[in-house]
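For anyone still unconvinced, we reproduce a single protein record, the chain in one-letter code, the fold tokenised, and leave readers to judge:
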Amino acid sequence: MGIEQRFHSLEDFLASTMSHVDGVLDDGWGLDFPVKGTEIEATVLFADISGFSTRTIDMSPAATLVYVQNFFAWITGEALHHRPGIVDKYIGDEVMVVFSEAFGSKDSFTDAVQAAAAMSRHDALAYCPHIGIASGRVIVGYAGTALRYNVSVFGAPVALAARCAAVKPPESEEPPMISSTITIPESEWAGRALDEMLPPPTRTASDGSKYIDFQPFELQDARAVKMKGLGDVEVREIYNAGMHCPSLSAENRALDGLRVLFENNRYWPRWEKPQPSAGEWVMCSRYLSRATGTAMMAPPAELGAAMGMTSYTAHAWYSAGSA
């Protein structure tokens, strides 16, 4: 699977390590509740799908489930590929991943940023994720009661990472043309060099010589943004100016996947039968309308030619401000 880590879940970690707190308290009304957890230093990563509600509004519940599961499978694979992170939870269209030296990271912040870059760089179905990252002291602990409980991470970095993921590019007459964003507190970026954190890929030419390929990531100047419950926070944003232009959209892939399950007698719809998608066409009106004022629907080859793009990789055609 390409997923290498010391622990495969937070439950696994908590059961395998010494707790820093382990006791029982009274809720004040006669009901006892347990408090058990282990304190660690960690980096938290949140990622969600750009424009999720708009992109799934016309889907059936079952097709939406396929769509979200495809996103989770893909983004988890990118986040954990040769990185010792642990998925904390999946919430709606969001995923939360935690990195820590306690889980095997040598540098949890670097692992988180590089995982975010992998999600963005290999976004073959154009989910265009919004990603937020924050580090600090957290506790891995049980949450809930005897009726229902799970294990999760708690602490200020969790809220900060979630707020960072919700940051949008500043409003302007010409919104930045980007595929996805990675937002980090300025205090954590601390003057790091982008090319050292995210080295541009090295390619081999036909004559065997090596060359540095296009660096799609652009580090933005620090700016203050208002965050709910946190006030003004200085952040750094990393924009991805490159993007895949898929021959089959994530939405159509979900529709076709559900149809396959139906045809193989693995989906028994309570309501209408699933219909096949429109096929290998890319709907780009949501991405292009704010940038060009024009709605477009075109096959990938025609779309690429119209925008001066080569192969299936497009540079700078998605406006994150339209999500």
Remarks:
- The first helix runs from residue 10 to 16.
- DSSP finds ten helices and 16 strands in the chain.
- The first strand starts at residue 21 and ends at 26.
